[in-house]
């Protein structure tokens, strides 16, 4: 997996807004019997990419002590063939003191949306959050 870009656009309304983009190639071990990206592999990719993206907004005392998933909902729109290079776009929609919401989209190199996710997270650690 390669980190392609990180864009942080904080505003008063969205002080933690951040978008990260990763790329990777769908390997055979990630595929189902039809030769397409397996749903569980897509969920794992989202879990990893969205979770890593939180580091872009963490600071001392804020989302710096780890976090766990509350929910991870995936919607599968079209198959992703094995061998395909994909891009995973992750957006931090909201990050409060304890709870956060992230959005993820898997796209093909020509921009077709294949899988989306909504990932709710909870910050763990010290009470100074």
UniProtKB/TrEMBL annotation:
Annotated keywords: Hydrolase, Isomerase
InterPro entries (alphabetical): ACOT13, HotDog_dom_sf, PAAI_dom, Thioestr_dom
Thioesterase domain ranges (all copies): 35-114
Molecular function GO labels: fatty acyl-CoA hydrolase activity; isomerase activity
Gene3D superfamilies, alphabetized: Hotdog Thioesterase
Domain of life: Eukaryota
SUPFAM superfamilies: Thioesterase/thiol ester dehydrase-isomerase
CDD domains hit by this protein: PaaI_thioesterase
Family: Belongs to the thioesterase PaaI family.
Descriptive protein name: Thioesterase/thiol ester dehydrase-isomerase
Species per Swiss-Prot/TrEMBL record: Lophiostoma macrostomum CBS 122681
